Amino acid sequence: MKHKDTRLDSDALLVLDALSRQDDHRLTTSEAKTVTGISDNDYVRRRFNKLESADLVTLDKDKNAPTPIPPTRATLTEEGTGKAESWDLDPKSTDIRSAEERLLRVERRLDDLDSRLDTIEEEATRDPESIPELIEARRLVATLNDYAVDELNADLGKYYPTEV
């Protein structure tokens, strides 16, 4: 998903979702790591930076933390709060009620897979041993496409790029 020219992957959206669920709409990198299940503080900090680039959070240092180096802390902006309320954020959520919300999730997942596919195709042209990964990515995209069409009656043709 792209917002303000910043590509937000599913983990960035997972962090945004975690922030929106906090009473004060703020988390340090360690807290976000714990809440989301992401295994690396540096990875969380990079997601914080993506969200900041998209004007969805502000970043500062938590000077009250009992650590020698203050951790990075993200706080939702007003725009971030609004987007968190309007977007279907949590890719692992099972609490999906409407077909529109399910379709939004499938579209977001297809977007993530399309991005992965582009990366794998670039690698495959440089390294022919990457072709099995390319085939697997194509299979995943086809599976999601079939699911969206069969289960959600989605017209994915309107999302097919006409220009490359």
TrEMBL record:
Coiled coil start-end: 96-123
Domain of life (superkingdom): Archaea
Start and end residues of each stretch annotated as Disordered: 61-90
This protein's name: MarR family transcriptional regulator
Keywords: Coiled coil
Compositionally biased spans, kind Basic and acidic residues: 80-90
